[in-house]
Specification:
Blueprint: E1 2-4, H1 7-18, E2 23-28, H2 34-46, E3 49-54, H3 74-83, E4 88-90, H4 94-97, H5 115-119, H6 123-138, E5 142-146, H7 150-162, E6 173-176, H8 196-202, H9 204-217, H10 222-234, E7 240-248, E8 263-271, E9 274-282
Parallel strand pairs: 1-4, 2-3, 2-5, 3-4, 5-6
Antiparallel strand pairs: 7-8, 8-9
The structure holds adenosine-5'-triphosphate, pantoate and beta-alanine.
Pantoate (PAF) binds near residues 29, 60 and 130.
Length: about 290
C-alpha cells in the first residue's frame, strides 16, 4: 500500500494501478470505523484496485462547527486500510487541495437545499467541490459512498450527471447501506464525541425513527408521526432536532403523505457535542 500527499505522485500511482484494471475510490474524512471498512470491502468486489482518500475538508465545515475538533488519526487509519488490502491512500494537505488563489465553487441546487443544506449553509458546496476535485485527481471507474449521508449521495450523483462526468460515470457512484452498532445507532466518526450516557441515549434516534416508520406505513398522518418522533427524541436526551422529514428517496421532494414511489425518512438531531444524522427506507403506499 502506498500513501501519497501531493498530486504528481498521486497521478503516477494511479497510472500504475490502472494497468491492473478498474480502479475504485472511497472518499473519507478519516477516523475510520466499520462503516468505512464496509465501503472498502464493497469497493474491492467491484474493482482491481482500491484508493481511499482521507481529507478533512475545511470547505464543508461552517463557522463554529467542529473542523478543529474533528478526529485526525492517519497512522491508525493507514493500519486499518493496509489490513483491508487497500492499494493507495490519497491524503492531501489543505494547501495541496486548495493552493493559494483557489477560487472555484461547485454548487448543486435542488437536492442540496433543505435538510442538512438548511442546517449547514454552504456545506454541500464544500462537499461537491471537494468530491469533484477528488474525482478529477483519481479518475476512478467507480466511487462508493455511504447511504448514511443520503442527501450527500443525491448531491454527488446530481453533480456527476450535470457535469457529464465520465470517471466515474454517475451510474458508477454507488451507495452502500448504513452500517450500525448492535443497538441500531449508525456508525459515525462523530459518535466519538458522545459521553457514555449520551451514547446510550443516542440509540433512541434509530429506534424512534423505526417507530415513526411503523406508524406511517400503518397509515398514520405523516405530520403527527414526525411530531411524535421529535417529542420522543427531545425526551430521550437530544437537546435539539434539526429536522425530521419524509422525502421522495431519489429527488428528495417533501412528502406530506405516503407515496407509491420509494420514500425515505431522514432526521438530524443534536446530543452533547454531536450532531447525528440518520435515514431509513419507508415502504411505498402500493406495497
Ligand atoms: N455507518 C456507516 N455506514 C456506511 N457508510 C458510512 C457510515 N458512516 C460513514 N459512512 C460513509 O463513509 C464515507 C466517509 O464518511 P466520513 O468520513 O464523513 O465518516 P462519518 O462517520 O460519516 O463521519 P461524520 O461523523 O463526519 O459524519 C461517506 O461516504 C459516508 O457516508
Ligand atoms: C464525501 C466526503 C469525503 C467529502 O469530504 C465527506 O463529506 C464524507 O466523508 O462523507
Ligand atoms: N459524513 C459527512 C461529512 C460531514 O458531516 O461533514
Amino acid at each position: 500500500m502506498q500513501t501519497v500527499h501531493s498530486v504528481d505522485p498521486l497521478r503516477r500511482a494511479v497510472a500504475t494501478l490502472r494497468k491492473a484494471g478498474p480502479l475504485a475510490l472511497v472518499p473519507t474524512m478519516g477516523a475510520l470505523h466499520e462503516g468505512h471498512l464496509t465501503l472498502v470491502r464493497e469497493a474491492k468486489k467491484r474493482a482491481a484496485s482500491v484508493a481511499v482518500s482521507i481529507f478533512v475538508n475545511p470547505l464543508q465545515f461552517g463557522a463554529g462547527e467542529d473542523l478543529d475538533a474533528y478526529p485526525r488519526q492517519l497512522e491508525r487509519d493507514s493500519a486499518l486500510l493496509e489490513a483491508e488490502g487497500v492499494d493507495l491512500i490519497w491524503a492531501p494537505t489543505v494547501e495541496v487541495m486548495y493552493p493559494q488563489g483557489f477560487a472555484t465553487n461547485i454548487s448543486v441546487t435542488g437536492v442540496s437545499e433543505g435538510l442538512c443544506g438548511a442546517a449547514r449553509p454552504g456545506h454541500f458546496d464544500g462537499v461537491a467541490t471537494v468530491v469533484c476535485k477528488l474525482f478529477q485527481q483519481v479518475l476512478p471507474d467507480v466511487a462508493l459512498f455511504g447511504e448514511k449521508d443520503w442527501q450527500q449521495l443525491a448531491v454527488i450523483r446530481r453533480m456527476a450527471r450535470d457535469l457529464d462526468l465520465s470517471r466515474p460515470h454517475a451510474d458508477r457512484i454507488l451507495g452502500v447501506p448504513t452500517v450500525r452498532e448492535a443497538d441500531g445507532l449508525a456508525m459515525s466518526s462523530r459518535n466519538a464525541y458522545l459521553t457514555e450516557q449520551e451514547r446510550q441515549q443516542a440509540a433512541s434516534l434509530p429506534a424512534a425513527m423505526k417507530a415513526a416508520i411503523v406508524d406511517i406505513e400503518a397509515g398514520k398522518d405523516v405530520k403527527a408521526a414526525l411530531q411524535a418522533l421529535e417529542t420522543t427524541l427531545l425526551g430521550s436526551g437530544f437537546s435539539a432536532v434539526d429536522y425530521t422529514s419524509l422525502r421522495d428517496a431519489d429527488d428528495l421532494t417533501v412528502l406530506d403523505s405516503r407515496s407509491p414511489r420509494p420514500m425515505r425518512l431522514l432526521a438530524a438531531a443534536r446530543i452533547g457535542r454531536a450532531r447525528l444524522i440518520d435515514n431509513m427506507a419507508v415502504m411505498p403506499s402500493n406495497c
